[in-house]
Amino acid sequence: MVKNPKGNFSAHWIFKYKEFFDIMDVDENGVVTEEECIDSTTERAKQVLPSWRAMAVNGILYSAFYLWWSNEYTNFSKSFTFQEMLRIEEFELPISREETVKLARDWFGAFDLDCDSKLMVDEYSNFLTIFRNTAKVQDIFDSIDWNEDDVIDTNEFIDAFEDYWVGQKPSPSDVFLGTRY
């Protein structure tokens, strides 16, 4: 099981989740809907990926939305506020580390356009585009390229993915999905 702090979230983790929430809240009305999370993000993916990869992104988003935010704990709600998102995170969802790693691998595979198990800065830029990043891509890329070899390999991506979602302390992975600021 993925360990959950049952509401004992650090201020940093809450700040990081609020940034994610703001990325997904496209119309900035304080509510993330299924359409914003899945459909709008898929539309952005279609702008930077071949259509079949954009559809893979759609599947990843759909699975994630229904696994984490629209489930029996939320009465399968199709939208949530930030406070509701935090309450959802207090439940210990039956998600194993292996499932988290699989999700990270799925994301990696969707953006590894040349299938070489490495993301170059242009491939990672595509990933950041779907999350409405406005920051300098190279700076974000460099913060995730922990071994400084000018590529993000599968392990770096998985480590950053896991740290982004569960890390309670400041880390280079805090910008994993980019930033809107």
TrEMBL record:
A molecular-function term among this protein's GO annotations: calcium ion binding
Superkingdom per UniProt: Eukaryota
Matching InterPro entries: EF-hand-dom_pair, EF_hand_dom
Membrane-crossing segments per the record: none
Residues in EF-hand domain copies: 12-47, 132-167
Protein name (Swiss-Prot/TrEMBL): Uncharacterized protein LOC106158603
Lineage summary: Eukaryota, Metazoa, Spiralia, Lophotrochozoa, Brachiopoda
